[in-house]
């Protein structure tokens, strides 16, 4: 005979929240990678250079600022002003979403006396305000916004590639 398990509403909410935080994390990591990939798109460099330049920088915000600076450097002149502005708006949006993402991923989640999962007011991090009464609803909206930013990033890639034009491949460094 198969055992049956009863799942309380509180446990179900906690499981849904854990899955949502996992989805937010996974999609955010993809957005982070696509943002970094703008670097070799505009400079035509070996993607390993991206790691050499950006990996020592621990702050995602500073990494985004470096990549945005590279975009601005590689696309000078009035003919690229709209594209630079579009990139700046998208990178600023990602920066605003980062605070919300940090709120979900780095907060200390507790179960209240009423059984609901919420952010601990004692251990609450200073970034990313989370609506204590509706964390699932707010998390779903954040997930939608991250998905939208990721779609916008893919469109930006195409525009950057078109603006830069075809590139010849740089010779690969061979230490031997």
Q: How does this structure look, described?
A:
- There is one protein chain.
- With 176 residues, the chain is mainly α.
- The protein has one domain (9-164).
- Helices cover 64% and strands 3% of the residues.
- The protein has six helices and two strands; from the N terminus they run H-H-H-H-H-E-E-H.
- It has helices at residues 9-36, 38-43, 47-54, 60-74, 81-106, 135-164; strands at 109-111, 117-119.
- A two-stranded antiparallel ribbon has the order 1-2.
- A hairpin with a 5-residue loop joins strand 1 and strand 2.
- The protein starts with 8 loop residues before the first helix and ends in a 12-residue tail after the last helix.
- The relative contact order is 0.16.
Summary tags:
176 residues; mainly alpha; disordered C terminus
How do you describe this structure in short?
The chain is mainly alpha-helical. The protein has six helices and two strands, in the order αααααββα. A two-stranded antiparallel ribbon has the order 1-2.
Structural domain count: 1
Helix coverage percent:
55-70%
- Helix vs. strand class: mainly alpha
Using the CA coordinates, give the radius of gyration: 21 Å
Give the overall pLDDT as a whole number.
83
Low-confidence stretches: 168-176
Q: Strand arrangement, largest sheet?
A: 1-2
Total strand count, please? Answer: 2
Shape estimate:
elongated
C-alpha termini separation = 67 Å
